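re: that chain from earlier
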Amino acid sequence: MNDILIISYAYPICAMLSLLVLALHFFSKRQIPVQRNQMFTAAILFACADVILEVFSAMVVNNSASVPPVLGYIVLTIFYLLRLSFPLLMIFHSISVTRSLKRRNLMSIVLMSIPTAVVGAIILLSPLTHHFIYYKNDNYYKGEYFPILSVLTILSALFSVIYGLAKKSAFQEKGFRVVAGISLLALGSVMAEASWPRLNVSSIAIATSMLLAYLSLKKPESMIDHTTGLLNLDALMTYMDELINREARYYVLVMKVENIRRINSIFGYTIGSLTLKNVADFLSTFSPDMKERARLRKNLKVYEGTNGADPKAKEKSEKTVGDARRLERTLPPAWAFRLMSNQFAVVSTSEETHEKILELLRERFENPWHIRGLELNLLLTVAEMPETSSFAEGSDLYKAVEIVLPAVPKGDTVTVSERELAKIERHLMLETSLEKALAEDTLDVRFQPILSTATGRYTKVEALARFTHDEWGDVPASEFIPIAEKRGLVAQIDEFVLRRACEFIKSATDVEIEYVGINISVTELASSSFPKKVSAILDEYGIPYRKIVFEITENALMTSIILMIENLQELASMGFRFAVDNLGLGKGDIVKLSMLPFSIVKLDRSVLEEVETSARSRILFENTIDVLKKIEIESVVVGCETTVQSQWISECSPDGIQGFYYARPMDKNGCLAFIQRNNAQTPKKPGRDNIIIVTE
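^ sequence. v structure.
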């Protein structure tokens, strides 16, 4: 092969200008430390170096007679070695987009790099072997192995496309389109240069590919907390996703500055914001981000420089910052994030860094902070999470923070134990399973009959949501309902139970059902759309509104009545009824209840325990039922489980009794059959055969 090597100036100069603008824009923003950003950083640097060297290579080739061959070989060899890196980067990019660039895949990655290494060796030895390029008669020529670079580019592009099609479901956002676009650009440039050797458009293809890759990255502006300048919660979850996916070791410190609200109320929000910025600046010193350190130096002057602060305090503050900067140079870095309000997190990948940062935090918060001439003592609460594998994705960490941090005593530093992490893991798994059950409509509803003491018949029912986990079996409502409330799933559960209750009433053609009680959340009752929503559901099933009773716990009623009162009155005017659930002795304001649209009161099961051990509680119990009768509010005693309880409850003559002694929660068909069978017989007192032993 004796084709003359031709390299034009125009294409690499155009590509160089585009890449320089792109690089300046990229590096001017704070970037989250994830694999794709790190790969793009390497790629943009390689690309800039490549096009700059292509310009020099064009100078060498076009002035080959006046450039010493040794210098020409050096420039061209470095240029083609850089150009050789792009097929490999193309493969790595397609793998990283699917989050498969992991340590356990290292051997496969090494094997894929072997062809590139072989071609690299050919290029390096070319001055001796003349296999790739060679100099002759004042010109540079393509060697017999020169096309191998194009072949490698084609194979890499095809691999990227095939890999993308095979892993399409694993691609993030528009990742597959970007991989396909870059592959097509590579194939197009190879075909163009093969057809028209003077068109060295590979540099244009590289610049365009870098633009596509850049546009696929997450916008750095969306990852910054604008109050403190730290990375925000979204950035934390993205970074944690990265660490979990890479199966990397990581250590987490989550913390809360306790007295920010007090500072806001006494000194104003400006001082409060400056305090948060000072804390953020201190945490920023552990970050390797150059832009962040520049911001820190600027803020240090603004907040503590010439604003009247004590010179000794300023000196101490600068010493602390200096110590942290020295820490960064001697230990692997950590990344600081602001979660929300006064909550922060620091994530490191080194145990030594983790322990050192914890030590520096303790030292710093033992000393006062000087803000605009004020000396403030800040109280820091810290939850330390050592190396853990409890989290399946980044969002799990923040969910764990919501569980752990409120339980830490103010001002303390607590290490989250393996046992606590196991509880958190269970919580997170329950949440995932609950979301899946709602999505797949596999949540269960059980119906528990309520005995009417006046007739001895079962004409009322309570619908109870039940959740069964694949591994742990039945999960108590007391465990999964709070999870649903925190995650905004309770509205879906309420609607699910309401629809099952409507189906139950619809199926009760041979059974008299006065009403079905449904537990309803405060968030639903406070929603302005709730009356319209429930009436539409009942109209859909053709169920009279009086057949549904919404049960609200006493605690929710007393704390949120202002939010619910308008909807309560509107629903009551439509014909719906309401019950106060879990009313205890001496707690409920029955007079206040009589002024609200409540027609039923359900006495909590804890009342039975009190009455059995206290004569005074027995008197209160009897008087409560008597008062409810006089103000025409129906009373239902919940939790009857023994013969003794049944006897003395009956003596007090409540309107209804509910409990395992009479009937356990059953599925729809079982409950209807139970009611039909019992109501068809002569009313009788329940017998021992109905007792269900309840264990914790």
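Residues 523 and 684 are 42 Å apart (CA to CA).
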